[in-house]
Amino acid sequence: PAVELATAALFVAVAGRFGPTPYTGAVLAVSATGVALFMIDLDHRRLPFALTGFALVATVAGLAAAAVTSGIAPLPTALASAGAWLAVYGGIWLATAGRGMGLGDVALAPVLGLALGWLGWGSSLVGLLAGFVVGAAVGLVLLATGRVAGRSRVPHGPFLLSGAGIGLFTGPVLWEGYLSLVGLA
Fold it and tell me: Fewer Cβ in 10 A, N or C end of the chain?
């Protein structure tokens, strides 16, 4: 029931935020897959390629439909965003020889970068950074409460997906606030 309830709540939030558009369809597919991946990673500490592959195909199909109906203007940013997310997650995986990040995270990252990049750099970068911030905060709480030891492995997929959710719903506002704060807006 938790998976179904979380998926339904996310669907309502996405539909309310974006309305009836092809982009909404892409985000709904990623959302449904994301809830499943979130729970699977918590339970089994892995992100199955079958689900990350489905998320990729559904996102590409949804964004292709969005490009046909709305134009291709967001496409270069979406592709660059996917590349940036892949570079960050793939770079961590390569630099740590797979000990700091799983391949499932590396496979999911560009999908989320593609979906968020369609909205712009604000959503993409906020989502990317938020996943690490949420992961660090939860990790500190787990260490402080003794629920994990110093070298314990905590799955990163839930943080990756949570960060993407933050980027999706609050990315533009947080990005504009940051730019105003540093005097670039």
Answer: N
Nearest-angstrom CA–CA distance, 107 and 19:
28
Residues in the chain: 185
DSSP code at position 133: H
- How far CA 4 is from CA of 7, 46, 67, in Å, comes to 5, 20, 30
**Are 101 and 155 in contact, with CB atoms under 8 Å apart?**
no
- Output phi, psi for 100, to 5 deg: -100, -10
pLDDT digits (tens, 9 = 90+) for 111-158: 999 999 999 999 999 999 999 999 999 999 998 998 887 667 889 999
**Amino acid letter, residue 184:** L
**Distance (Å, rounded) from C-alpha 170 to C-alpha 127?**
9
Q: Is 177 exposed, middle or buried (0-12, 13-18, 19+ CB in 10 A)?
A: middle
CA distance 113 to 121: 10
d(CA 108, CA 88): 12
91: pLDDT strictly greater than 70: yes
